[in-house]
């Protein structure tokens, strides 16, 4: 295949054609798209295709640069000559020939002919379509032989070499999701899950694990079954957020036996009931109970930050010069190889312990007491009720971010965020000892805004108990070039 050739993708706004569009953007220097308005009942897919194109541009800058013109051709004539359940209000059922009555005769033949004519004019030699002979409804114009014959027909009829690529032809729906993940990581999986449309009835009012749809029509059934084989409901979460509680984390003895530590999150394992082996992570966040003084165990090639949570003072002797952490929230950073000797008062000292593998992951730590620091440029409190004290915190994540962790030490916080690719905002109320981890495989645009409200009336009584509310925000960034994570 000529990697520098241009491709025209038949793009309907559905899962398959959106995956094919990503496939083409991964391979070709120039990609254009074509869609058809043929009076389909699920016309909502025409709106979805606009959203998918916009999300792809926002989320994948390298693809944005390759993505060219989009056209939607009016094919109302197709509705005039067919009485399919896709173009009229008929119940979906099977006809005597074994084909579902969602079959629109000649639809793909017509689409490909028109796409071939457009490609010819645009100087594009490759047509890409999501036709598939594996998990399909038996449409004869989705068959590989049909498409091969049409490739020959178009090449002869246009007197130029036309290639029809069908990357999904021999993939089932689970393998299609896996291909999506290979092409663009969890970010692309989420984009296709939320922005594409499959349901024949045009239902976008119900969100399932596998996306929007009625859940019962043949298109929804195929999509649902494929998703469940790709990502069983008890396996990885479909959302990049994980919530954790200190109380659920399993205590492990320190390497030197002078206390216990509870792992809250690592890059390897976020199930806090499972201990993370020392050698097995690139970053780890834990809460350490320091029960007696003494030297810390050395950690080779690890950078460390300790933040005092409770029970100060904690005195750390580094090369003879003591550093004292007295108040909650005070912190110290040091290299894991450094000789550090701890002294404590009679009570157990509790500290948040951040470790990152040097050369792999770097970190930024923010400790926020009471109301968060406001970024005036981003503060949208004007739109909030007057008794709320909101502040937007931006620049919490960058293109190199691999994870963002928030841990509420005291009080309650309402944490709201919107991921970069989705306008939908989500929020959680976290109380003392709770936190969240946000992350995605691609590490791009993880959190575009995070807002914290310490003064929601329903939270006041909670916050009034004990000390002033405060929380710790940690951004973890890859030390490698992150741009490589977009195009594999
Ligand atoms: Zn449906």
Q: How would you describe this protein?
A:
With 488 residues, this protein is an alpha+beta fold. It has 3 domains: 6-230, Rossmann fold (3-Layer(aba) Sandwich), CATH 3.40.50; 240-358, Jelly Rolls; 360-488, Sandwich (Jelly Rolls), CATH 2.60.120. Helix content is 23%, strand content 31%. The protein contains 9 helices and 26 strands. The chain has helices at residues 15-27, 44-59, 61-64, 76-81, 107-122, 144-158, 173-195, 218-230, 457-464, and strands at 6-10, 30-37, 67-74, 126-128, 163-165, 207-208, 211-212, 241-245, 251-253, 259-266, 283-290, 294-295, 302-310, 314-318, 321-325, 331-335, 340-344, 349-357, 361-369, 390-393, 401-410, 412-418, 426-431, 434-438, 449-453, 470-478. It has a 6-stranded antiparallel β-sheet, with no helix packed on it. Strand 6 and strand 7 (211-212) form a beta hairpin. The model is unreliable at 234-238, 269-277, 372-388, 457-465 and 482-488 (pLDDT under 50). The site of zinc ion has 9 residues, from helix 8.
Write the layout of secondary structure elements.
Layout: E1 6-10, H1 15-27, E2 30-37, H2 44-59, H3 61-64, E3 67-74, H4 76-81, H5 107-122, E4 126-128, H6 144-158, E5 163-165, H7 173-195, E6 207-208, E7 211-212, H8 218-230, E8 241-245, E9 251-253, E10 259-266, E11 283-290, E12 294-295, E13 302-310, E14 314-318, E15 321-325, E16 331-335, E17 340-344, E18 349-357, E19 361-369, E20 390-393, E21 401-410, E22 412-418, E23 426-431, E24 434-438, E25 449-453, H9 457-464, E26 470-478
Parallel strand pairs: 1-2, 1-4, 2-3, 4-5
Antiparallel strand pairs: 6-7, 8-24, 9-10, 10-11, 11-18, 12-17, 13-16, 13-18, 14-15, 14-17, 19-26, 20-25, 21-24, 21-26, 22-23, 22-25
The structure holds zinc ion.
């Amino acid at each position: 295949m000529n990697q520098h050739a241009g491709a025209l993708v038949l793009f309907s706004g559905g899962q398959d054609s959106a995956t094919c569009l990503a496939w083409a953007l991964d391979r070709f220097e120039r990609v254009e798209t074509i869609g058809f308005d043929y009076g389909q009942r699920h016309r909502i897919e025409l709106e979805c295709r606009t959203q998918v194109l916009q999300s792809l541009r926002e989320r994948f800058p390298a693809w944005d640069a390759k993505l060219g013109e989009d056209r939607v051709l009016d094919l109302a004539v197709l509705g005039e000559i067919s009485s399919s359940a896709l173009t009229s209000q008929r119940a979906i059922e099977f006809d005597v020939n074994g084909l579902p009555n969602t079959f629109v005769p000649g639809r793909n033949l017509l689409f490909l002919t028109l796409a071939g004519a457009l490609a010819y004019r645009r100087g594009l030699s490759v047509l890409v379509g999501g036709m598939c002979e594996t998990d399909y409804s038996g449409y004869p114009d989705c068959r590989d032989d049909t498409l091969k014959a049409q490739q020959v027909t178009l090449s002869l009829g246009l007197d130029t070499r036309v290639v029809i690529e069908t990357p999904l032809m021999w993939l089932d729906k689970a393998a299609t999701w896996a291909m999506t993940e290979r092409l663009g990581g969890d970010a692309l999986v989420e984009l296709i899950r939320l922005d594409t449309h499959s349901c024949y009835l045009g239902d976008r009012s119900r969100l399932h694990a596998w996306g929007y749809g009625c859940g019962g029509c043949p298109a929804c059934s195929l999509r649902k079954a494929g998703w469940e084989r790709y990502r069983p409901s008890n396996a990885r979460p479909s959302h990049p957020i994980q919530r954790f509680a200190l109380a659920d984390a399993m205590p492990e003895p320190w390497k030197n036996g002078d206390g216990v530590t509870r792992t809250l999150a690592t890059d390897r394992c976020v199930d806090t009931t499972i201990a993370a082996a020392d050698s097995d992570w690139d970053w780890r966040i834990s809460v350490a109970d320091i029960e007696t003084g003494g030297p810390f165990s050395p950690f080779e090639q690890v950078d460390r930050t300790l933040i005092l949570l409770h029970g100060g003072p904690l005195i750390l002797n580094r090369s003879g010069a003591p550093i004292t952490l007295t108040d909650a929230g005070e912190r110290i950073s040091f290299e894991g190889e450094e000789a550090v000797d701890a002294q404590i008062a009679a009570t157990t000292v509790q500290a948040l312990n951040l470790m990152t593998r040097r050369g792999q992951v770097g970190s930024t730590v923010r400790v926020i007491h009471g109301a968060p620091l406001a970024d005036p440029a981003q503060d949208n409190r004007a739109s909030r009720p007057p008794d709320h004290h909101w502040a937007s915190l931006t620049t919490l994540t960058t293109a190199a971010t691999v994870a963002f962790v928030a841990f509420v030490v005291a009080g309650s916080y309402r944490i709201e965020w919107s991921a970069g690719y989705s306008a939908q905002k989500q929020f959680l109320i976290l109380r003392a000892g709770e936190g969240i981890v946000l992350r995605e495989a691609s590490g791009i645009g993880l959190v575009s805004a995070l807002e914290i409200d310490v003064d929601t009336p329903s939270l006041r009584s909670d916050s009034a108990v004990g000390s002033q509310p405060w929380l710790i925000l940690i951004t973890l960034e890859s030390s490698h070039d992150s741009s490589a994570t977009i195009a594999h």
